[in-house]
Design goal:
Shape: elongated
Order of helices and strands: HHHHHH
Largest sheet: none
Helix content: 55-70%
Number of strands: 0
Bound molecules: fe (ii) ion
CATH architecture: Up-down Bundle
C-alpha cells in the first residue's frame, strides 16, 4: 500500500485513476455551478443597474453585465474543450448572494447614495464568490491536464479580479464619502431626481455626484489600483 505521503501526492497530482475520476467529476460539477452562477449574474446585474443611483455605478453594472455574457460564452467553450455538453446546476451560494443584493434594494431609499454603497458591497460579494470558484476551477483543470480549459478559466478569473478592484475604486472614489454625508436617506422616487453626471443634473447642494477623473468603471482593462481593501 502506498504511503500516506504518496497518496497525498497522487491526490494532488491526480495521477491515480480513482483520484482522477473523482476530480474529473468534481471539475464538471464546479463548471456546472459556475455556468449557472454566471447566467444568474447576467440578470442580477441588470436589476442592480436599474436600481442604482449614480451613473457611475449603473454603468459599472452594465459594463460587467456585458462582460458576463462573454464569460457565459467562454464557459461553453470550456465545456466544448473537454468534450462535455454545457449544462448547469443550481448554485445555492449565488442564489443567496443575489437575494442579498435584492435585500439591499428593498432596505434603501431609491435615489440614495447609501443604496449605491450597498449595491457595491453586494456586487463585491458576488465577485469574491466567482474569484474563489474560478480559482478552484483553474487548479482542477491544470491537475487534470485540460490546458485549454485552464487558459480560458484563467482569463475569466482575471476579469473577475479586475472587476473587484474596480468596485473598490468606485467605492473609494466618492460613494462612501458622499453616502456618509447624506442626511439620512435622500428621498427620490423618480428618475428625474436620480443623481447623475448628466450636464443638466445637479445635486441639491449644487455639486455633482461624479468624479470622472478617478472612475473608470469596472470591467475596464485600465487597472489602476492594486489592493483589495475598501472603506465601506
Ligand atoms: Fe463573472
Amino acid at each position: 500500500m502506498a504511503s500516506l505521503g504518496d497518496q497525498i501526492a497522487n491526490f494532488f497530482s491526480g495521477s491515480d485513476d480513482d483520484t482522477r475520476e473523482g476530480l474529473h467529476g468534481l471539475f464538471i460539477d464546479e463548471l456546472k455551478g459556475i455556468y449557472y452562477a454566471e447566467k444568474q449574474a447576467v440578470d442580477a446585474l441588470g436589476e442592480q443597474a436599474d436600481a442604482s443611483t449614480t451613473d457611475e455605478v449603473r454603468n459599472a453594472f452594465l459594463t460587467h453585465q456585458e462582460e458576463t455574457r462573454g464569460q457565459v460564452a467562454r464557459l461553453e467553450q470550456v465545456f466544448q474543450s473537454i468534450g462535455v455538453d454545457a449544462d448547469d446546476k443550481t448554485c445555492a451560494a449565488i442564489d443567496g448572494l443575489v437575494d442579498d443584493a435584492q435585500t439591499v434594494v428593498s432596505n434603501t431609499e431609491s435615489g440614495s447614495l447609501t443604496r449605491d454603497a450597498g449595491l457595491i458591497i453586494a456586487g463585491q460579494k458576488i465577485e469574491h464568490h466567482e474569484i474563489a470558484a474560478y480559482g478552484s476551477a483553474v487548479t482542477l483543470a491544470k491537475v487534470l491536464g485540460y490546458s485549454e480549459a485552464a487558459q480560458l478559466l484563467h482569463q475569466t478569473l482575471e476579469e473577475e479580479k479586475n472587476t473587484d478592484k474596480k468596485l473598490t475604486q468606485l467605492a473609494e472614489s466618492f460613494i462612501n464619502q458622499r453616502a456618509a454625508l447624506e442626511d439620512g436617506n435622500t428621498p427620490s422616487d423618480s428618475d428625474e431626481n436620480r443623481y447623475s453626471t448628466d450636464t443638466n443634473t445637479v445635486n441639491p447642494d449644487g455639486s455633482r455626484y461624479s468624479d470622472s477623473s478617478t472612475i473608470t468603471g469596472y470591467g475596464s482593462s485600465n487597472d489602476t489600483i492594486s489592493g483589495g481593501s475598501r472603506t465601506l
